[in-house]
Amino acid sequence: GYDISSLLKETGNVTLDVGFVNTASCKSAITYIDGDAGILRYRGYPIDQLAEGSTFLEVSYLLIYGELPTTDQLADFTEKIRRHTMLHEDLKDLLQAFPRDAHPMSVLSAAVSALGTFYQDSLSITDKDQVELSTVRLMAKLPTIAAYAHKKSQGQPTLYPDNRLNLVENFLRMTFGFPSEGYDVDPVVAKALDQLFILHADHEQNCSTSTVRLVGSGHAHLFASISAGIHALSGPLHGGANSAVLEMLDSIETQFGGDVDKFVEKVKNKEDGVKLMGFGHRVYKNYDPRAAIVKKSADDVLKKMGVNDPKLEMAMRLEEIALKDDYFVSRKLYPNVDFYTGLIYKAMGFPTEMFTVLFAIGRLPGWIAQWREMMEDPATKIGRPRQLYIGETERAFVPADKR
Ligand code: ACO
Could you give the CA distance from residue 168 to residue 140 in angstroms, rounded to a whole number? Predict the structure, then answer.
C-alpha cells in the first residue's frame, strides 16, 4: 500500500538503494574492479600477475601500505609478524571453553573480539604506532587462532607456532601437525594456499569490508571492526559460499544420483530457492578473474597431490552446462572465486567448516587496509544510512487490559 515514489519525494534528498547496488559509500585507492570486463587489480597490479609472481605477505604489504615492498621492507614486515604469532595462554583457555562442535568462524570472530581485551595497548585509532601494532598482531595471530579452532573441533592437542617457518607453512603445521611428531609441509600445498590467500586478499566494498568500514566509522578499534567483518563473511551468500559449494556437490550426489542436469533444472525453476552456489556475483557480469586462476590451480594441485576427486569432474560439468544455458547466460551468471576453492581445500585435508576461515585469513589484509584508509581520510564520517519509513502513522497507546 505504500507508494515509494511519493515517499521519496517527501524525504527530499533521500534515495532508496536496497543492497547498495548503485551507491558508493566511499572513495578508495586500494582495489579496482571492472565487473563487465572481468578485471581485478590491487593498487594497480593485475591479480593474475600478483597470483603468479608475488607472495601473500608481499601482497598484504602492498594493500596496507600502498606500494610493493623493497626486499628490506618485506624482511622487516615478515620479521615483525613472525614475532607476534603466539597467543596469550589465557586466550587459549578462553578458546578451550567453547563447545567442541562450535563453528570455527564463530570461534575466530570471538577470539579476534577478545584480542581487544588482551591487547589494550594497541586500541587507539589515531596513534600510528598502535595501529601498526594491532595490524601486525592481527596478521600474525589470525592463522594461529584459525589453527587452534580447527584442532579444538577435532579434539586434538594444539601446537605452538614454529617461527622458523613462514606464515603459511606455520599455519599448515599448526593445523595438521601433532606436538609429538615432526611435520613436513608439502611445498605444493603451501604454494597453492599462499596463492589462494592472494586471490582473496581484497575485493573493494563487499559485504564484510563494508561492515569493517561501517563499524570503524563509529571509531571502534581495529580488533572490533575485524571481528564484525568475520561475522559478515560467514554468511552463505558471501564467504560461506565456498563451503556451500561442496555441500551442493554432495547433495547432487546423494539426492540426484550425480545427475547434474537434473539439479540445474531445479535451480532454473527456482525450486525451494535453490541456487547454483559459487555462481553469480554482484559486480562481475563476466568470468570472475580469480575463478579462472583457481580453476587451473584446482586441476594442478589435485593432480600433483594425486587426488582423484569425482567432484572436480562434477563441478566442471556443472560449469559447462551453466555457461551454455540461457538461464545463466541471460543473467550473466559465471563461476565466482568460490566455485573451485572448496575442492582444493578438501584435497588439502581441511574439513568443510574451515573453508570460510581460510577465506578470512586471506581477506584480513584487505580489511585492515580499508579500515586504515578510512581512518586516515579526513572526509570520513560515521556511516549512517537513511530509510524510508513504511510503518504506522501516529496512534494512541492502548493499555494492556483494553487490547
Ligand atoms: N543460481 C541461480 N540463480 C541465480 C544465482 C545463482 N547462483 N545468482 C543469481 N541468480 C539469479 C537470481 O535469482 C536473479 O534471477 P531473476 O532475475 O529471475 O530474479 C538474477 O540471477 C539476479 O540475481 P540477484 O540475486 O539480483 O543478484 P545479486 O547481485 O543480488 O546477488 C549473489 C549476487 C548474492 C552473489 C548471488 O549471485 C548468489 O546468491 N550467488 C550464490 C552464492 C555465492 O556464490 N556467493 C559468493 C559470492 S562471491 C564472494 O562472496 C566471494
Answer: 11
ipTM of the complex: 0.93
Write down the pTM of the prediction.
Answer: 0.92
What is the predicted pLDDT for the residue at 1? 58
Across 334-343, average pLDDT? 91
Q: Which of 109, 87, 88 is nearest to 98 (CA)?
A: 109
pLDDT at residue 11 tops 90: no
Pocket-testing residue among 20, 336, 358, ligand 1, by greatest number of atoms within 8 A of Cβ: 336
> Among 159-163, 236-240, 275-279, which stretch is predicted with the lowest mean pLDDT?
236-240
Q: Which amino acid is at 374?
A: M
Residue nearest to atom 49 of ligand 1 (CA): 238
d(CA 185, CA 26): 41
Burial class (CB in 10 A: 0-12, 13-18, 19+), 305: middle
Residues facing 42 on adjacent strands: 31, 45
Looking at 12-16, 355-359, 381-385, which range is the least confident one?
Answer: 12-16
Give residues with Cβ within 8 angstroms of 307, minimum separation 6.
347
Cβ atoms of 137 and 119 within 8 Å: the answer is: yes
Residue 338 appears among annotated catalytic residues: yes
**Residue 288: partners with Cβ closer than 8 Å, 6 or more residues away:** 38, 281, 334, 335, 336, 337
β-strand 31-34 against 39-42: which pairing, if any? antiparallel
Question: Which ligand 1 atom minimizes the distance to the CA of 281?
Answer: 35
| CA separation, residue 151 to residues 100, 350, 372 (Å) | 10, 11, 32
Pocket test for ligand 1, best of 18, 22, 282 (most atoms within 8 A of CB): 282
List all residues 6 or more positions away from 190 whose beta carbon is below 8 Å from its beta carbon: 166, 168, 169, 172
